[in-house]
Amino acid sequence: xxxxxxxxxxxxxxxxxxxxxxxxxxxxxxxxxxxxxxxxxxxxxxxxxxxxxxxxxxxxxxxxxxxxxxxxxxxxxxxxxxxxxxxxxxxxxxxxxxxxxxxxxxxxxxxxxxxxxxxxxxxxxxxxxxxxxxxxxxxxxxxxxxxxxxxxxxxxxxxxxxxxxxxxxxxxxxxxxxxxxxxxxxxxxxxxxxxxxxxxxxxxxxxxxxxxxxxxxxxxxxxxxxxxxxxxxxxxxxxxxxxxxxxxxxxxxxxxxxxxxxxxxxxxxxxxxxxxxxxxxxxxxxxxxxxxxxxxxxxxxxxxxxxxxxxxxxxxxxxxxxxxxxxxxxxxxxxxxxxxxxxxxxxxxxxxxxxxxxxxxxxxxxxxxxxxxxxxxxxxxxxxxxxxxxxxxxxxxxxxxxxxxxxxxxxxxxxxxxxxxxxxxxxxxxxxxxxxxxxxxxxxxxxxxxxxxxxxxxxxxxxxxxxxxxxxxxxxxxxxxxxxxxxxxxxxxxxxxxxxxxxxxxxxxxxxxxxxxxxxxxxxxxxxxxxxxxx
Length: 535
Known about the structure:
Blueprint: H1 7-17, E1 37-38, E2 56-57, E3 82-86, H2 89-97, E4 103-107, E5 111-113, E6 117-119, E7 124-129, E8 135-139, E9 146-148, E10 153-156, E11 159-163, E12 172-174, E13 177-186, E14 193-195, E15 200-209, E16 212-213, E17 223-225, E18 228-231, E19 235-237, E20 240-242, E21 251-254, E22 262-266, E23 270-272, E24 275-277, E25 288-297, E26 301-303, E27 306-307, E28 314-323, E29 327-329, E30 332-335, E31 339-353, E32 356-360, E33 364-366, E34 369-378, E35 381-382, E36 389-391, E37 398-402, E38 406-408, E39 411-412, E40 418-420, E41 428-432, E42 436-438, E43 441-442, E44 449-458, E45 462-464, E46 467-468, E47 475-484, E48 488-490, E49 493-494, E50 500-502, E51 507-510
Parallel strand pairs: 3-4, 4-7, 5-8, 6-9, 7-10, 8-11, 9-12, 10-13, 11-13, 12-14, 13-15, 14-17, 15-18, 15-19, 16-20, 17-21, 18-22, 19-23, 20-24, 21-25, 22-25, 23-26, 24-27, 25-28, 26-29, 28-31, 29-31, 30-32, 31-33, 31-34, 32-35, 33-36, 34-37, 34-38, 36-40, 37-41, 38-42, 39-43, 40-44, 41-44, ...
Antiparallel strand pairs: 1-2
């Protein structure tokens, strides 16, 4: 059984962490860095979300901020604790309020709470149930079930935190340090956990489920995080953000400003079956939503979440999103079944697969910048355009740079692998420098890539075995600019029998191949790999 160290040791660890600084980077080949931030929304109208231009954020706004909590303490050495057994509210409050040293409070029965239960400043409390049991703290009035004050530490193991039907409030409100090594937090109406500015929440095991955030101004059905949240294990499931501006059915990461961002680092666990819904207007981030913050996914699963607007699995805006590993699968939204990004997005590993967009971007829908170094975007579906990736600029150019990885087996009406669009004063850009697009299928045009008014440049990489029911098995150039300086496009199928189909609009520069004499259909020479490799 994991024990908590003395409060002083944990405070010191957090202070050390808070000295880590973020150094801005120009994005020249480092998958952990990205350019300056901005929120942009595209101008297409497949859902009812209002379009607003948000402020441009300079890199300077993010200097000296934490962006990646990989080094946060995940466990601490055992300490000697006094153990107190409690069976009612009076005994519970006495044990906590009189604790002068690290103390284990062991529940021997369910305890109903008639007023706020507070872990006071300076206290270091571990709460558990007697062996083999799972007793609960039950809020009976409109209040937070547990409040952890500033500089207090609470660790829970095999206990439940819930409330009686008809009452409202947060499950756990954190201003200090909260560690979840097991147990459940459920059935709360203002969210399961509220991690306030300056607080720290570490989730190693346990379950946060069946909570609802009904607030109009915020969100976060399972967790509303304004500070630092690290998830190593456990489950966040069946939570709902209802009629919120930022959604986040499972987790909402929301800093107070660009200069005071929040962060979420996920090393494991599951975020599943959460919902973000706002009838009439739509909301974002069925699994995770980020604004003024950072989300780094190293491992774990984000699956089967739903948003009625954007980002079934993840939505980000005025933020930074890093996918290093893990799986994003089975999520659904109008745009961006897997991910909707209106901020800087870097993918250096992991899998985005089997997500569904009822309109645009089955795997990824983005309107800022997306850099892909490795990983796969596979088996996603868009009922309209962009089975794998939909590039949708709004108030500035949106650039997708693919260095490696794969986009495969996706399905859409147009642009099975990637769909490039343009806005009134903005351009979608695809720079294909490596990787492979294969086995994508469309009902109409552009099995691999469809360029509609954007910019496509191919210097390396492979587009093969894609299928278009109409024109352009590999590439459909409808309008805009397309330039091929290298790479291979071959063995694609279309009703026009062309690997590349060119409309009489825009500019097409083919500096390598001549599709009309069939040279573009040649496979790469022997020894050239046609499967992606890690950089």
